[in-house]
Amino acid sequence: xxxxxxxxxxxxxxxxxxxxxxxxxxxxxxxxxxxxxxxxxxxxxxxxxxxxxxxxxxxxxxxxxxxxxxxxxxxxxxxxxxxxxxxxxxxxxxxxxxxxxxxxxxxxxxxxxxxxxxxxxxxxxxxxxxxxxxxxxxxxxxxxxxxxxxxxxxxxxxxxxxxxxxxxxxxxxxxxxxxxxxxxxxxxxxxxxxxxxxxxxxxxxxxxxxxxxxxxxxxxxxxxxxxxxxxxxxxxxxxxxxxxxxxxxxxxxxxxxxxxxxxxxxxxx
Length: 269
Description:
Layout: E1 2-6, E2 13-16, E3 20-22, E4 28-30, E5 38-39, H1 43-46, H2 55-65, H3 71-84, E6 88-92, H4 98-106, E7 111-116, H5 119-128, E8 133-136, E9 149-155, H6 161-167, E10 168-179, H7 185-191, E11 208-222, H8 225-233, H9 243-250, E12 255-268
Parallel strand pairs: 5-8, 6-7, 6-9, 7-8, 9-10
Antiparallel strand pairs: 1-2, 2-3, 3-4, 10-12, 11-12
C-alpha cells in the first residue's frame, strides 16, 4: 500500500519496501539502516549537511520523555486524536516518536507519516513506530499531496499554516501543542533572577478556524541529576543560559516545577 509520503522528484505516492521506498515512476529512496526513514529534504533547502536537533539533544529528550514526566500531555493528546477518528495523519515534527507511538496505539488502523529534520530523532522514531512512514523533510515544503490527510499534529515546532492547510482535506483538523504560561517555572526560577511567563495567545491562522483549547497543568519533582540534566538539555535554555546559571541548576539535588501545556484545535476552512 502507498504511504502518505510523496516522491520529491515527481510528486507521486511512495510505497515502502524493506530497504527502499519507490514511486510508480521508478524513483527510489534508500531507507536508513537505523530507523528506516528516507531523505526527502530538497537539496536547495538543506543549508546544512546535518540539519535538525543534534544527537545530544535527542538523547536528552528521549531520556526525559521515556521517564514519563510528560505523560499527562501524551494521554490527553491521544484521547483527542481518538475522538477525531482520523484515517490519515501527519505528525509534523515527530521527533523521537514518543507522542507518535501513543497516537498509533490509539488509532492503530490509521496511516501515519512523520517528518523531522533530525536524523538522530528519526532513528529512534523508526524503532518506536515501525509502521509509520518517516522522512527527513521540512515543514515548509511537506512531501505530501494536496488534501491528503485528515489530521496534522504539530508539537513544539515552527508553524507553517499554509502548508498544513494545503495537505489537509476539507474540514481537516490541525492540533497544535505549545507550552503554557508557567511551563517549567521552577526551572526558570533557578536559572533567571526574574522568570518570565510564556506567551499563551490563541493564534489566528490563515485558512483555519479556531475550535477548542485544552489546558494541562501538573507538578513534577526530579530527584535524579540525570533527569534534571536531560530536561535542561532538551530545552532552548541549554544554549542561551549563562554558564553559572546552568551550573546552579545542574548541581541541584532536586527540581520541583510546574509543567503546563496548551492543545489548540483548528479546523480547515
